[in-house]
Write a structure and sequence with these properties.
It is built from nine helices and five strands, in the order βαβαααβαβαααβα. It has 191 residues and is α/β, with parallel strands linked by helices. It has a single domain, classed as 3-Layer(aba) Sandwich (Rossmann fold), CATH 3.40.50. A five-stranded parallel β-sheet has the order 2-3-1-4-5. Helix 2 crosses helix 3 and helix 6 packs across helix 7. The longest helix has 15 residues. The structure holds adenosine-5'-diphosphate.
């Protein structure tokens, strides 16, 4: 299995690049944000609870997203590999993911981190908010809160994967295709 973590702050382009990568490499895209939004759309109890937290730009509890990922991994046991997008977002999530993948016998292959300046992120997210319908993209204070959550809780897991020799930084500014090519050239070294 080829198991990729596509990492980066909100608005870095993880969703856009994941769509292109799954097509090229035949991987399964696991986005906790997308899974949570589908729970909201279906009006499940989990979705209703998650929505309150997401609308504030805060993180959903670790045990909720870990359980979601666990069931997706179990449901796709024969996949060629996975792209984890928006997960893990805390050290506890990274540790839980390692434990789940160890059970499968297919650890994380690599973490590719899209790097984008904060001012560019805010610009992109406000722009996306004009037509995405996502409430968390429509208010600059909420966007700032998400970036703060990223800096405080998520960015430290770079060190977690660096210690395993798996972290690679990728310049996340430029055209969608330029960034895609940068990602592919790292992936093709080991795919
Ligand atoms: P973005 O990366 O643009 O913020 P996402 O779709 O990845 O968008 O996430 C939207 C929201 O969903 C987050 O702000 C958070 O509230 C929640 N969320 C998504 N993934 C996780 C996760 N792994 N852990 C905790 N909360 C999450």
């Amino acid at each position: 299995m080829f198991n990729l973590i596509l990492f980066g702050p909100p608005g870095a382009g993880k969703g856009t690049q994941s769509e292109k990568l799954i097509e090229k490499y035949q991987l399964i895209h696991l986005s906790t944000g997308d899974i949570l939004r589908s729970e909201i759309a279906e009006g499940t109890e989990l979705g209703l609870k998650a929505k309150e937290v997401m609308d504030l730009g805060e993180l959903v509890p670790d045990e909720v997203v870990i359980a979601m990922i666990k069931s997706k991994l179990e449901a796709n046991a024969s996949a060629k590999g996975f792209i984890f997008d928006g997960f893990p977002r805390t050290t506890a999530q990274a540790e839980a993911l390692d434990a789940l993948l160890e059970e499968l016998g297919h650890p994380i292959t690599i973490m590719l981190a899209l790097e984008v300046s904060e001012s560019e992120l805010i610009k992109r997210l406000l722009n996306r908010g004009k037509n995405s319908g996502r409430p968390d993209d429509q208010d600059e204070a909420i966007i700032q809160n998400r970036i703060n959550e990223y800096q405080n809780k998520t960015a430290p897991i770079k060190d977690y994967y660096s210690l395993q020799g798996k972290f690679r930084a990728i310049e996340g500014i430029g055209s969608i295709d330029d960034i895609f090519n940068r990602l592919c050239s790292q992936i093709d070294l080991i795919f």
